[in-house]
Write a structure and sequence with these properties.
7-stranded mixed β-sheet; about 120 residues; 11 strands
Length: about 120
């Protein structure tokens, strides 16, 4: 399984970006895809995730500003980030996981998001 993320970049505070992540390979149909981020000197944290059934979960810090969505037929997940703040600056990682006997857990390569003040 491989995950290919794209869409990061530099944006001014208040701006928007959209991240995309496409998964390929042998993927269990019931899964969850999500986005995590890691800022310098901090631990990686969950931003948002979404199950194949459409259930979503957001970190409190992004609720009301970020929207996660997916297209199951394409094994692709998106993160629309609005009203960006400098504290959103981080490397964003795409994640795919499912449980089939054991936990299967895959990560993308990371994409940098920088928000200038």
């Amino acid at each position: 399984v491989q995950l290919q993320a794209s869409g990061g970049g530099l944006v001014q505070a208040g701006g928007s970006l959209r991240l995309s992540c496409a998964a390929s390979g042998s993927i269990f149909s019931r899964n969850a895809m999500g986005w995590y981020r890691q800022a310098p000197g901090k631990q990686r944290e969950l931003v948002a995730d979404i199950t194949s059934g459409g259930r979503t979960n957001y970190a409190d810090s992004v609720k009301g500003r970020f929207i996660i969505s997916r297209v199951n037929a394409k094994n692709t997940v998106y993160l629309r980030m609005n009203s960006l703040k400098p504290e959103d600056t981080a490397v964003y990682y795409c994640n795919l996981r499912w449980r089939e006997g054991r936990l299967w857990d895959y990560w993308g390569q990371g994409t940098q998001v920088t928000v200038s003040s």
